[in-house]
Specification:
Number of helices: 3
Strand content: 5-15%
Helix content: 25-40%
Shape: elongated
Distance between the termini: 65 Å
Oligomer: single chain
Structural class: alpha+beta
Strand order of the largest sheet: 1-2-3
Length: about 170
């Protein structure tokens, strides 16, 4: 077994049965830097070049407790009400772009927010069928666009083609 070179320290050191080096806590000596009136006799595993150590219990006494932030209170207003041009709350308070208007309180009817319809999820077979039909539509539009000579019709086919390409991209 190698002998470890130990740095000069005023704190006691010892080795355990596994050959690890242990050092006593700084708070074992009264009037130390972190001494809080209680002598600590705990030993901590350290490296050979350690000058002093402060055990986890003494660190916990010195450190402030973790900050626990209060949970955000959910408002009675719907999502995005601050971004609406005009929003009237149930109690009659009127807001223009999130800013309360005191002079209009109770003069307007409350804003009615209609919930969105949930999107219907399509099956794999329906998706494949849509992709095939869009592919056929895109090929016919391309051929019509190539042989069309009128400027207005060409623009219409180009718009339809780009729309079909966008919907195809969403599906893939």
């Amino acid at each position: 077994m190698k002998k470890q070179k130990i740095q000069n320290s005023e704190f006691k050191t010892k080795s355990d049965f596994k050959g690890r080096m242990l050092m006593i806590c700084q708070n074992s000596v009264p009037a130390g830097k972190y001494f809080k009136g209680i002598i600590c006799n705990s030993w901590t595993v350290v490296n050979s070049d350690t000058a002093s150590v402060l055990c986890s219990q003494c660190v916990a006494q010195i450190a402030d407790p973790p900050i626990q932030r209060a949970s955000i209170i959910k408002s009675d207003k719907p999502k995005g009400w601050k971004f609406m041009k005009q929003f009237v709350a149930k109690d009659g308070t009127v807001y223009f772009k999130g800013i309360e208007q005191q002079n209009l309180k109770g003069k307007l009817t409350p804003t009615v927010i209609e919930p969105k319809e949930p999107k219907k999820k399509i099956t794999k077979q329906e998706k494949d069928e849509l992709i095939r039909s869009l592919g056929k539509e895109i090929t016919t539009l391309k051929s019509k666009l190539m042989f069309e000579t009128k400027k207005g019709k060409r623009a219409e086919y180009a718009r339809l083609l780009s729309k079909a390409n966008r919907t195809l991209k969403k599906l893939i």
